[in-house]
Design goal:
With 123 residues, this protein is mainly β. Helices cover 0% and strands 50% of the residues. The strands form 2 sheets. Strands 2, 4, 5, 6, 9, 10 and 11 form a 7-stranded mixed sheet that branches. The termini are far apart.
Length: 123
Amino acid sequence: VQLQASGGGSVQAGASLRLSCAASGRTISSYKMGWFRQAPGKEREFVAAMSWSGGRTYYADSMKGRFTASRDNAKNTVYLEMNSLKPEDTAVYYCAAGDPGFATTTAASYGYWGQGTLVTVSS
């Protein structure tokens, strides 16, 4: 599976962005999908994870209520809607796909990664 993330950019605090991650090579309908991010000088951290059907979605505590992850298996694409962005949300955001199974928050559970898209939030 090849993943291509897009939609990042530079915004002011309080703004919204919608990231997309288009998959190719294989259909993602049976894969768990996740979003992670890595801020400068920090380790990669979990953002959101979706089960293969999208029926269950998990979020990191700091993103709950602000971020919404979704998937459109027909379009082979997943999305991350980010609202009320804060400067601490500045990071490179990565989408990831993992073999069928329960959605997990652990990066090691995902074997396929996109190249990342940069989100910069200024105060």
